[in-house]
Write a structure and sequence with these properties.
The strands form two sheets. A seven-stranded mixed β-sheet has the order 1-7-11-10-9-8-12, covered by helices on one side. A five-stranded antiparallel β-sheet has the order 3-4-5-2-6. It is elongated and about 60 Å long. The chain is 22% helix and 26% strand. The protein has four helices and twelve strands. The longest helix has 17 residues, at 176-192.
């Protein structure tokens, strides 16, 4: 299947680019957020809550949540795993986790790294599901008329769902570099697969979960 569609760049650079939202190269109207994680050694969730005034009710949710106005939302688990959700850039997310470890006087058992960057691309025009499955033979037509598939290596963890109105949801991109490449290819596919007046709903369907 390689080479049929989505020619990809060579292996991604090992260093994470410190990209701000404005520098991301993601099109206007797209909605995305950074989810980063780190593991703190000698972590105490009670101390974390006391110092930060985070919300914590283990009967409701097994982690403490700390919402900040400019960094995102920290989600801290008792085992020392700490997530930062809804950050505006990888640089902000990684720096915020490192700063939190310093504030708590914890060492980093696992350094801050990007876990995923979910992204939603807005609707542009109706697409032909049949044309998408012709170009991506391993894609599946969902019961709702959207098309789902997983990218080929080296981006095999990235999952894409293109909806009938041309909007798309991208999951499991691990860096902004990877997300930019995937977005570019998804946009190209949406443009190439614009629906005709006849419409088209043929393809291999799977039921909604």
């Amino acid at each position: 299947r390689s080479g049929l569609i989505f020619p990809m760049a060579e292996a991604l650079a090992s260093q994470v680019a410190a990209l701000s939202l404005e520098e991301s190269g993601i099109p206007t109207g797209a909605v995305f957020s950074i989810i980063a994680t780190a593991t703190f050694a000698d972590f105490s969730i009670d101390r974390f809550v006391a110092l930060t005034k985070a919300d914590y009710d283990p009967n409701e949710f097994p982690a403490a949540k700390l919402r900040t106005p400019d960094q995102g939302t920290f989600v801290a688990f008792r085992n020392g795993n700490v997530l930062l959700c809804n950050a505006r850039s990888e640089a902000v997310a990684h720096r915020a986790l490192a700063d939190l470890a310093t504030e708590l006087r914890c060492t980093l058992a696992v350094a801050p790294h990007t876990d995923s960057i979910p992204c939603h691309l807005p609707a542009c025009h109706a697409i032909s599901a049949r044309m998408v499955t012709q170009r991506v033979p391993w894609a599946l037509l969902h019961g709702s008329g959207s098309v789902l598939w997983r990218f080929e290596p080296p981006h095999q963890n990235v999952e894409v769902r293109i909806n009938r109105d041309g909007s798309a949801d991208i999951h499991m991109a691990r860096t902004m570099q990877e997300l930019r490449l995937v977005v570019r290819e998804v946009q190209r596919l949406v443009q190439e697969c614009a629906a005709t007046e006849d419409g088209d709903e043929e393809g291999e369907c799977i039921e909604e979960d």
